[in-house]
Design a protein that fits this description.
By secondary structure, this protein is mostly helical. Among the domains are: 94 residues; 73 residues. The chain contains nine helices and four strands; from the N terminus they run αααββββαααααα. The chain has a two-stranded antiparallel ribbon. Strands 3-4 form a two-stranded antiparallel sheet. Helix 1 runs antiparallel to helix 9, helix 2 packs antiparallel against helix 3 and helix 7 packs parallel to helix 9. The longest helix is centred in the last third of the chain and has 98 residues. The protein is rod-shaped, with a radius of gyration of 46 Å. It starts with a helix and ends with a helix.
Length: 383
């Protein structure tokens, strides 16, 4: 009787195992075929709470990436303008230097060439606007742009970086839409009403210089006469003229003061006012050289300011590139985590299905052995 019971239980187990495996395999295959659709209620709730939040983060960060790209375009346009301005100033400086060798008769022609380059610089500054926004024509005000996105719990933060600043102050918009460049870093180029005292200072300096030159000529003449005829009268005349010239040379309130005051005026003359000056071809060599040295010094200072602006813009572009790469990586990580969240479920179902298939294969191999054992057991029970 015990043998019959054992036999019946073994037979039932052997027959039920394939059926059980088929049922579980069907469930596993069904779960796997659903792909992104989650059938389990608890899993579905988890996906509903996590995946949409991650997708929202991804979409928000993508919009920040777009904003960063737009601002990068604006900074790159500003960099192009700065490079163009530097090249133009280098050309202007060469023109001013050439005036030393070409003489005053060519100074008016140099004025025309300089005026063209100055006008092109002003056009470049105005053209640096992108989407009605010009970071080099806002009076040097720093502008914040979005750089990254994060949330702590339910609180959302959009971090930002600053672009612009006083190093990029090329001007400010007037009410009529024009740009006032007279108070920016190129004020030596675009400042106005800087030559109003030039004519007066030139006249004073020219008068003093001519008087001093007249004394020097008199000294030379007296020396020639004394050398030709070393009489007492010529010696006294020569000594008197020499004394007057010496006193004037030592007196800083005469020629030296006039020259210093004239140089102060020329140091303040902008290129915009220089190109509009008249009769520059008629300037004396001393006045011409003083004016050219002042212009060259102002141009050099402007180039130095441009180099600082270029370094500032380059650092801004590097910072934006770093932020852009960081945010792109963040988006990729979020998208990857969303896929991983789904893949974890799919991988688990795939592993379960593989295990059931192996179990079914083993059961197929063991079924004949189980049937054979049952046959022998039944045979023994009949004996």
């Amino acid at each position: 009787m015990a043998i019959d019971l054992f036999t019946n239980q073994s037979t039932i187990a052997v027959l039920q195992t394939p059926q059980s495996i088929d049922i579980h395999s069907g469930r596993a295959q069904n779960q796997r075929k659903t792909d992104l659709q989650v059938c389990n209620t608890s899993d579905h709730a988890a996906y509903e709470s996590i995946s949409p939040m991650m997708k929202y983060d991804s979409a928000t960060i993508v919009s920040i990436v777009d904003a960063i790209k737009q601002n990068k375009e604006q900074v790159e346009v500003a960099k192009t303008m700065v490079d163009f301005t530097k090249d133009s100033l280098n050309t202007i400086e060469k023109l001013v230097v050439s005036a030393y060798t070409k003489g005053s008769e060519n100074l008016s022609k140099i004025q025309v060439h300089i005026a063209e380059h100055v006008k092109n610089i002003s056009y470049a500054i105005a053209a640096a606007a992108v989407n009605a926004r010009n970071i080099v024509a806002n009076g040097g005000v720093k502008v914040k742009i979005p750089s990254s996105y994060r949330h702590e719990g339910l609180t959302i933060y959009v971090d930002s970086i600053e672009i612009g600043g006083p190093e990029l102050n090329f001007g400010v918009y007037n009410l009529d839409g024009t740009i006032d460049m007279s108070k920016g870093i190129l004020k030596n180029i675009f400042n106005t009403n800087t030559a109003t005292n030039f004519d007066t200072a030139k006249m004073i300096f020219d008068t003093v210089q001519k008087a001093f030159q007249k004394l020097k000529d008199a000294l030379i003449q007296a020396k020639i006469q004394y050398t030709a005829d070393p009489s007492w009268a010529h010696k006294i005349a020569y000594n008197d003229v020499q004394k007057v010239v010496g006193n004037n040379a030592k007196d800083s309130g005469v020629l030296g003061k006039a020259k210093a005051e004239f140089k102060t005026v020329t140091d303040g003359i902008s290129l915009v006012d220089f190109v509009n000056m008249r009769d520059v071809d008629q300037l004396s060599p001393e006045i011409r050289n003083t004016l050219l040295k002042s212009l060259q010094s102002n141009i050099h200072d402007s180039i130095a300011s441009i180099l600082i602006a270029k370094a500032k813009i380059s650092s801004m572009i590097d910072l934006i590139d770093i932020q852009l790469e960081f945010v792109k990586t963040l988006v990729e990580n979020i998208d990857s985590n969303i896929r991983t969240l789904v893949d974890v479920n799919m991988n688990a179902e795939s592993a379960r299905l593989s295990a059931l298939q192996i179990q079914k294969h083993l059961n197929t191999q063991t079924s004949p052995l189980a049937n054979q054992n049952i046959y022998h057991t039944l045979a023994l029970s009949q004996k």
